[in-house]
Design goal:
The protein is of the alpha/beta class. It is 23% helix and 24% strand.
């Protein structure tokens, strides 16, 4: 009788928490990486939470999005376990996310923003279009400023979702987001 070796499944994506410095103090960040480490994979994704939440709102979807890319979900300044900025504004939050990307030496990122996080994502895309490759906005109110985004070499890709769908179908949403982020330019 010949024994067939069992196929080992790839290690599960692990989420971790860390602190990163920004000009307002420290940002508490939840991270998830593919088993390959993530840095040689697809564009890094930053997930930005609504004003009534923290990075914890991404707990269920974070590992689902990290199969082929590094994912960071910061507590924006003044939320969760992050230090507050003086004005606690959308512009300050965008600056903190830019500081995070700079500290990680990322040249380009994708952004997933929900509510307040969508406004922060658009603010960052307006201020640093060379940094932001694609936007996924879960809140259409933030889309008003999209016309101000000046992408240096291409039109910015934007996926828009209405209501907060994380609780209902995180796997399906993660698949939709992943398919959008993988689309060729």
């Amino acid at each position: 009788m010949v024994k067939v070796p069992k196929q080992s499944s790839p290690p599960a994506v692990r989420t971790r928490r860390a602190y990163f410095d920004c000009q307002f103090g420290q940002l508490h960040v939840r991270t998830a990486f593919p088993t390959t480490g993530g840095f040689d994979e697809l564009a890094t994704l930053a997930c930005l939470h609504p004003s009534d939440a923290s990075s914890r709102s991404f707990n269920r979807i974070l590992p689902l999005l990290a199969g082929v890319r590094s994912v960071y979900a910061p507590d924006l300044p003044g939320y969760g376990e992050s230090d507050a900025s003086p004005a606690r504004s959308v512009a300050d939050a965008a600056t903190a996310v830019c500081d995070l990307a700079g500290g990680l030496r990322l040249r380009q990122i994708d952004l997933l923003g929900v509510g307040y996080g969508a406004a922060v994502a658009v603010e960052l895309a307006v201020a640093k279009p060379e940094l932001v490759r694609r936007l996924v906005l879960i809140d259409l109110a933030a889309a008003d400023r999209l016309s101000q985004v000046k992408q240096p070499h291409q039109t910015m890709d934007v996926a828009r979702y209405g209501d907060h769908p994380f609780d209902a179908a995180p796997r399906e949403l993660a698949e939709q987001i992943d398919a959008f982020l993988r689309r060729p330019p």
